[in-house]
């Protein structure tokens, strides 16, 4: 099998990057209610999980998940979420690819685990909240959210909460991917990732 990405592979990467981003942004809307901000990664992971598993059925070559993670990071950076997404997406994408490779790009369990591990990519969104809190509050105020919103959001994001937030994102992604496996079982059977019962 040719392991080089072709035009069809890149179209799949682009299409699924857009779809995963769409569901991620829908989950992110929960953050308009400041006290619910810690739940955003869980909800975004749960909503994008089924789409991620449909993408997993198309992944047959190295690099597809990595490129999807980098494209997602670039969109987040372009929409004002900060440069930290780039290094964390590099790490999340590489770890996800490592997990996929361990299953020969044919294991549904490895695909689910790869997307769970790739949640690390999103940590870059949260880093400014925890290392530059005052600057982040001022940025929120300048963007029109208001000081009351910013302070309420920070009140539910103590410094120690980064770990639980990331674990919540991983749990949401795991559950969303599991739902996706059940809904999309026939696609995985066709792709040879699941045996028909």
TrEMBL record:
Alphabetized UniProt keyword annotations = Membrane, Transmembrane, Transmembrane helix
- Which parts pass through the membrane? 12-33, 39-57, 69-91, 111-132, 153-175
User: A Pfam family name for this chain?
Assistant: Trep_Strep
The UniProt entry, under InterPro entries, shows: CHP02185_IM
Q: Which domain of life is it from?
A: Bacteria
Q: What is this protein called?
A: MptD family putative ECF transporter S component
């Amino acid at each position: 099998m040719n392991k080089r990405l072709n035009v069809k592979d890149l179209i799949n990467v682009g299409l699924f990057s857009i779809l995963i981003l769409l569901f991620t942004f829908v989950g992110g809307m929960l953050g308009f209610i400041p006290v619910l901000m810690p739940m955003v990664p869980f909800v975004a992971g749960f909503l994008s999980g089924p789409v991620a598993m449909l993408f997993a059925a198309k992944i047959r070559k190295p690099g597809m998940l990595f490129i999807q993670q980098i494209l997602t990071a670039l969109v987040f950076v372009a929409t004002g979420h900060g440069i930290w997404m780039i290094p964390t997406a590099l790490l999340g994408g590489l770890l996800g690819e490592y997990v996929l490779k361990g299953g020969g790009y044919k294991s549904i369990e490895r695909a689910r685990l790869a997307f769970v591990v790739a949640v690390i990519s999103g940590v870059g969104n949260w880093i400014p909240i925890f290392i530059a809190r005052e600057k982040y509050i001022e940025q929120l105020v300048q963007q029109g959210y208001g000081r009351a919103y910013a302070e309420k959001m920070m009140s539910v994001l103590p410094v120690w909460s980064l770990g639980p937030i990331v674990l919540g994102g991983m749990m949401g992604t795991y559950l969303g991917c599991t739902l996706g496996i059940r809904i999309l079982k026939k696609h995985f059977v066709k792709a040879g990732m699941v045996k028909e019962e």
